[in-house]
Amino acid sequence: VFVRRSNGKNSVQLDEDDSRPIFVAERNSRHALNGDRVSISIAAHVKGKEPEAEVLEILEKKDQTFIGTLRVDRHFAYLLTDSKYLATDIFIPKAKLKGGATGDKAIVRITEWPEDAKNPVGEVVDILGKTGDNTAEMHSILAEFGLPYRYPESVEKAAAKIDAGITGEIVAEREDLRGVTTFTIDPKDAKDFDDALSIRKLPGGNYEVGVHIADVTHYVKPDSIIDREAQGRATSVYLVDRVVPMLPEHLSNGICSLRPDEDKLTFSVIFEMDDSAKVINSRIVRTVTRSVRRFTYEEAQEVIETGKGDYAEEILTLDTLAKQLRERRYENGSVDFDRVEVRFDIDENGHPTGVYFKESKDANKLIEEFMLLANRTVATFVGLPKDKRKKSKAFVYRVHDMPDQERLANLSALARNFGFKVKPKGTPKEVNRSINKMLEGVKGRGEENFLSTLAIRSMAKAVYTTENIGHYGLGFDYYTHFTSPIRRYPDMMVHRLLDRYLKGGRSVNVEKLEDECKHSSNMEQLAANAERASIKFKQVEFMADHLGEVYKGVISGVTEWGLYVEIEENKCEGLVPVRDLADDYYDYDENNYCLVGRRNGNRYRLGDEVQVQVARANLDKKQLDFVLVDEKNPPRSLDTLAAPSVAEVMRSSSKSKKTKSRNGRSSKSSKKSKSSRRG
Length: 679
Description:
By secondary structure, the protein is an alpha+beta fold. Helix content is 27%, strand content 28%. It contains 14 helices and 34 strands. The protein has a seven-stranded mixed β-sheet with strand order 11-18-17-14-13-12-19. Strand 6 (65-72) and strand 7 form a beta hairpin. The chain is globular, with a radius of gyration of 28 Å. Residues 643-679 have low confidence and may be disordered.
């Protein structure tokens, strides 16, 4: 597979999984694009040099598009791309502009790239709007990751024909819980209410707690036009200023959403629990419910803190039960990652005017704990049959693999320097308890960001699969996603499988189910990337209003081309290029996450506190450049802050195996220490 890079460092990845990428010079690329399958010839090995390859033939072209800004001149037009996969502009015949004009943000498909031409030729697929317009920029982020930014009219029309249809016949087939106190707790800007909680005291003194989930699959039938669209999207996408829903709004915010004072069809997991939150028994049933109140997290939190307000007794009881569930979960090896999320105050034009942080408080944790319990119960019900002689049926699991052992060992070694003992080996419960102890002990200390970041990086990614290996991070043997079918397609898959198996149906085809799981995992990752890109765009846009200002920050990343610094006040991250570290030549020590000065031994390490000045904000590349500020390097005036872009820094810092030192001698860089120099 050909890997194209805008910095000229093209390569090919051989089909052998364990092979290293092989460099391909542009003159030997045959203009292959990123993702194309190619056949290659590898040059004879020369001692002391990295191997090189030449593309012989493009076997399979990957259909792909590029996003950028149009420039239309009198006789020709071209696209200035934002892509990290293409260094050249794309020439566009004026007949293929689709009405585009200079300054438009556009999506362009490459149609040909003649061997003797420097630039590829393309055609406009869609015009997103003017560059800089908020909606155009958000749509371009979605398009960059291959995610849809419009809803097909045919799907909207099909959804509009669906009626809630809660008839007497439908109610008779379900457990009617409309008389039980039920409410939702969600973010203040939420409209798609997936889940609700109910609670009532039973005659024997125990509690009945219901986790009620929107019964989306009652309305969305398999292989319908709405279902096919939802399956393709696989997830709602949450950008900074908008939600791109998986389902049409008529369903997601209307019929399916568990809005107050409306009868709703739900799929429920109902628990009998004692005072210590021990589950006595549970059942999974289709129900009819009616929410009596819509709480925001802030409103529920006020009830928890003051003990006063609507349904205070119910909320306080659920909070007490949730805290006991959480305490036991951590005792059994669940990892306690509690990260702050960045949010923006945005004006009517989509421009960020301020930054605030979303913290998880008791009200958030209350909902989280009961959703975890419901998901775990559903997965165990299918995955661990009561009759042990029977094989469990095919199902969708949410799994989380063991941590990367090398990274875990590295975390253990570095944590020891700060007085924390993290077990690099042992049972999952032992390892996770040691990580939790470190995360608790490091709170409020200078190294908190450093060690918590390393702990997160040591973890694997959670995915959907039919092969259950358990969820390492939660410490669960069985886990799935059942509680958010409005915004996640795997939850819809789980609802359908549950309905089938509760009725005694046979197991479904596991191979087909696994393919659907892989697609959902891939789409989830793309959505997460788009969400991060939208946050980064708004961070850069926000900091563009603060050029020249000085902030306290923490080194959040270390590379051979510089230091990434996260500003303490607003969590915006930018790069301090290594070329601006003018006091010395710095080597990159990747094992210890630091840059080390050759002459003075000065170290810049992940987690170190520094002061930075905002030097440059590049919206096209979603990149910020900072300069370090200290006693020797006072803040600069704005006209002297013409820092190079991050891409330029990366190109200038790309080195061969040998790098010249200040005195003209050469010093070899090993795998453990990659050399970077100023200028």
